[in-house]
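Reviewers asked in the last cycle whether our approach scales beyond single polypeptides. To address this, we selected a multi-component target totalling 608 residues and predicted its structure end to end. The input consisted of the following lines:
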Amino acid sequence: MTSLSTDPAVASSQRSGATSEQGAPKRRQGFWARENITKILFVVPAGLYLVLFFGYPVVKNLIMSMQDYTTKTFFTGEAPWVGFQNYVTVVSSNLFWPALLNTALFTVACIIGQFVIGLALASFFNRHFPLSRFLRAMLLLPWLLPLIVASATWRSILDQDSGILNQFLGTFGIPAIPWLTSPDVALLAVILVNIWVGIPFNVTLLYGGLQDIPEELYEAGELDGATGWKAFRHITWPNLRPVVSVVLILGVVYTIKVLDIILGLTNGGPANATQTIAVRSYQESFVNFEFGVGAAFSNILILISLVFAVIYLRANRRAVDE
Amino acid sequence: MTTAPLNRSSVRGSALRRRALKTRGSTLLGILFLAIMLFPIYWMVNASLQPSGNTLSADFFPWNPSFDGYEKAIADQGRNLLTSLIIALGAVGVTLVIAAPAAYALAQFKFRWISWAMLAILIAQMIPGVVIANALYAAYNNLGLLNSIPGLILADASHAIPFAILVMRASMMSIPASIIEAARVDGAGQIRAFISIAMPIAKNALITAGLFAFLFAWSDFLFALTLTTTDEVRPVTLGIYQYLGTQVSNWSAVMATAVLSSLPAIVLLVVAQKYIAAGATGGAVK
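The resulting structure, written as structure tokens, was:
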């Protein structure tokens, strides 16, 4: 810019900087130069937002989890420091291990279901036929709906006495299943609904991955007799691996924090059959008003996410560096 | 073609016909898959049009559509729908105002710490909402932002801001530095260059980010649930949850509300398919 300062247009663009026009040599250099300050101003709002709405909550949760933070705190302003007491409470509570197990079952089952169906549909749509674009786009709908709408709809479908699913199964002579009211099947029902919600996301990412595999590889493979299943095993799968790992890890990160679906369908019941760590965290904080205990639960959730986030970032490093 | 031997062209013809048959079969199969996937949505619409006394034992098709459910839904939830609309539009504004300049800066300025910023944005996307809600409840309580529309707008924007930065940055990366440089030489400041050069070029990404900010905020349930304590400000997602809370007494009203809450997603998917499809892949991987 300095080399162009004879250009009147440039000079006029600097008119608001009082000293810069005549006193070119006096212009402040380095980090605090006017140019740099303008640049910084572009990122200040976002930086501030990220700090306030992501950074602060994480730190605040860490602190709260070490405090006896309850409704009383809002009146007295006092939150006595209790060290790791909340974590002891969490781990020794009756619901912790079942909730952890449910979280694991829920996450693994959802990921497998979404991934397998997602990959099958993505491969199917990769064939390109009339209307395939339109149909693929419409497939996104379950993912775009508010989750609470999905919960409400599935509550009606899964209703034991008059839900359409049991009526349908009834035509095959299968007796009515108490999907959401029996502790034996409630978790399964919640998993099925969440798989339904997650399929579009998996299809979209995996379809993108399939699109990136060069057609020539298949043509070359065909000459070597690799078609159908063989082509999938030796061409598609190895080339899809990077996308697969991203899909699976993101799937884990998004699935372990699922809350809306479970609250809408079962509220953690019946008989705590669908309690997960996320549900526990919500209920301790906002039902029992034990914010400290709730924070401890959610920190466990963050810890698990963090492990997968690190794996994700390593798997996705190339994409980040670009 | 006319000189080609007859048998050869007929072989090709039958191969083509077989192929055409195969693609038609694929289309039919695709429609079948879509029908299965979207059946619950059909069922929601169907149930919303059943007479309200008729709890759930619905016909397969609403032969005698009743709009009682919708009347009740609008009477009960009309105000909540409006609240959701205001919050979602507010979240779009906040998201774009905060994310667009940041995306531009991260795409065009050579900050040394860019990879750290990108890392922070990716991690921010992964933080569970319940963590944010937990901390915001206490903070909002002190700031008087509980039960307020601005409070919910700011919180809901957290669903979209990291995503919006990623999507818009990806698009602004493709703006050649020379175009910006040329504008600067012509006397445009950084801000002018951003508004009159970068924004129009990145228009599509801007629309995608805006649409998703709307959908995310409209769908928000967690912040609605945790950051409101009274009936004063009540987004429709919370309205549905309350319908579901106790024994559901009027399914057609619940389903009618569900349909009304689905309208933005359905309409945008049909009208703005291009942008939605772009967003579906955009924020997730990069």
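DSSP finds 16 helices and no strands in chain A. We regard this as preliminary and will revisit it once experimental data from Aim 1 are available.
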